[in-house]
Design a protein that fits this description.
Blueprint: E1 2-8, E2 14-21, H1 28-35, E3 41-45, E4 61-63, E5 68-70, E6 79-80, E7 86-87, E8 98-101, E9 106-109
Antiparallel strand pairs: 1-2, 1-3, 4-5, 6-7, 8-9
Amino acid sequence: MMAHFAQIDEDGTVLRVIRVPDTREKTGATFCRDVLGLGGRWVQTSFSGSIRRRFAAPGMRFDAGRDAFVTPQPYPSWRLDARGDWQPPIPCPETGDWLWDEITQQWRTLSGET
């Protein structure tokens, strides 16, 4: 088994994710920074999402206030909820296949109908 740690830049953006031995899990951030000589800030992540909401990937952001990794904002009109999930201005219909149209601020079916 391996533990996973994400390197975070000064803006909270994930730069990379690496695996460290489970025996180093408790000191993983220090292990990455000092022992491996990689420097920077390191935050643990997990495939199951049990640590910091979701598995980190390059380009995601670490939100320290939510203690969660957040995906990039899909559209300018979408806002983060308390859990760190992006929410559209209008909830998506529950049935069918829908795409968000940022220009009209509406959900459209895959065929283009509203």
